[in-house]
Amino acid sequence: MKKISFVIPCYGSEKTIEPVIEEIEKYVSLRAEYDYEIICVNDTSPDNVLSVLKSLAATHSHLKIVDLARNFGKHSAVMAGFSIVKGDYIVCLDDDGQCPMDRLWDLLDPVIDGGYDYSMAKYDKKKQSGFKNFGSAMNSLMSQILIDKPKEMNFSNFKAMKRFVVDEMVRYNNPYPYLEGLTLRTTRNIITIPMEERDRIAGEGHFTFKKSISLWMNGFTAFSVKPLRIATIIGTLCAIFGFLFGLYVIVRKIIHPAVAIGYSSTMAVILFIGGIIMLMLGLIGEYIGRVYISLNNSPQFVIREIIGEDEK
Fold first, then answer.
1. Are the beta carbons of 192 and 120 closer than 8 angstroms?
2. Residue 277, by phi and psi: left (phi above 0), alpha (psi -120 to 50) or beta?
3. CA–CA separation, 208 vs 132, rounded Å?
4. How far apart (Å, rounded) are the C-alpha atoms in residues 181 and 148?
5. Confidence of residue 311 (pLDDT cuts 50, 70, 90)
6. Number of C-alpha atoms within 13 angstroms, CB side, residue 48?
7. Which among 47, 59, 127 has a CA at the least distance from the CA of 308?
8. What residues contact 312, with CB distance under 8 A and at least 6 apart?
9. What's the rounded Cα separation, in Å, for the pair 160 and 224?
10. Any idea which of 39-43, 175-179, 251-255 has the lowest mean pLDDT?
11. Can you give 134-193 as a three-state secondary structure string?
12. pTM
């Protein structure tokens, strides 16, 4: 019997996780030929979601709980769930009820027998704040430039994939996982399914500005050296510009000896070049810092406890 694994990172969802789990069970049961498991990863949520999950585990035999030792972030929480999945197909979704679970089999069928390795929901309109929409757009643009993501492809949190995709992703054991980058370096055989995103069942999102910057930096530095190449190009252009400007100043002084040397323009050039140098040094430092942390074997996640049928 084929098995489907559902992975749900949980943070601040004590009021929403129960209906999400019940809806999964409702729609997966429409095809009795598939077994399933639901893996909820508690990313050290500040509310009582862990207690809620433990209560649900007593009556939901397919539920497993992964309790992380501290908050590692959403992508690391998903990777923690991936590390223990048993299914032939893996589905990721949010804990807030926004993923349209009634379209589950529309999402899974292209992966099961449609010849695709990976499928995900495509929302024409995301029901989130303008700030988060802007962050998503910048992240998408960055992915297009740095990791060659197709322009028409927008990654969403409701997705399904074959087991080999997850097996390849979990081979990445360095800190700062970036799921889009891990997916695109594994397969490009991806399909998007048009769907309509739902409203949250309750509460508000927890995607802060700090988390947005952290995610953007993960993708910016973890899976591409293009930023360093761009830094080299900018440095070369600045050097050429400086050389040509120097020639211009010398020629102008020879032709017009009375022309005074411009203090303001000199300071502007110095400040501009100095800013570029500091920016590039910061970029190089970011790369070196992440290499250093990786060499120290900083973990993606630390599991405190696994609760469920395989907890022994």
1. yes
2. alpha
3. 9
4. 9
5. very low
6. 5
7. 59
8. none
9. 25
10. 251-255
11. HHHHHHHHHHHHHCCCCCCCCCCCCEEEEHHHHHHHCCCCCCCCCHHHHHHCCCCCEEEE
12. 0.76
Tokens of 142: 């960055």
CA dist list (Å): 77 to 81, 119, 130, 207, 301: 6, 20, 25, 14, 7
Interacting residues of 79 by C-beta distance below 8 A, sequence separation 6+ = 169, 170, 177, 179, 300, 301
pLDDT for 187-212, tens place per residue? 999 999 999 988 877 766 665 556 66
Q: Residue type for 166, please?
A: V
Kindly state the tokens that stand for 114: 């449609």
Whether 220 and 287 have beta carbons less than 8 Å apart is answered as no
Phi, psi angles (nearest 5°) of residue 309: -65, -25
Which residue did the predictor score with more confidence, 86 or 266?
86
Structure tokens at 209: 């500005």
- Tens of pLDDT, residue by residue over 43-76, are 999 989 999 999 999 888 899 999 999 998 889 9
pLDDT for the residue numbered 135: 61
Give yes or no for residue 312 having a pLDDT over 50.
Answer: no
Inter-axis angle of helices 130-146 and 209-222, nearest 10 = 0
What size, in residues, is the chain?
Answer: 312
